[in-house]
Specification:
With 136 residues, the chain is mainly α. It has one domain. The chain is built from 4 helices and no strands. Helix 1 packs antiparallel against helix 2, helix 2 packs antiparallel against helix 3 and helix 3 packs antiparallel against helix 4. The longest helix has 32 residues. The radius of gyration is 16 Å and the shape is elongated. The chain starts with a helix and ends with a helix. The relative contact order is 0.16.
Amino acid sequence: MEFQTIYLVNLLLSAFMCGVIWLVQILIYPSFRLAEDIKHHQFHMKAISYVVLPAMLLELAAIVYYFWLVQDQMILLALVLLILIWLSTFLLQVPQHRDIQIEHSHKSIERLILSNWIRTILWSAKTLVLLWYGIA
């Protein structure tokens, strides 16, 4: 596969996940405030996994492979941003989703919404870094 194709795969995966995380941040997580019970949250957790887990795994594999090929500082920055996204996901958001399953409270939902800004900002930054890399 040529370098440009692998770059485009990285950019598309990052842009896709950036769009997903903005949708989650602005629409889906705030909708948890409206649900009376945890069924809405349970549905979200199951359904979103089919979308984000394959995309996140492909995104990680693609950026690692591309960095291995080009050894560029901008791609290293994109990789670091993705590692931070994964850390935030598994150290902050996953435990907060578990908390919502245990106690569907306004406080637990607000913590999730607030902490998810970390991933929203990081995915946005990662996508912009890849766009800049492609332009430069």
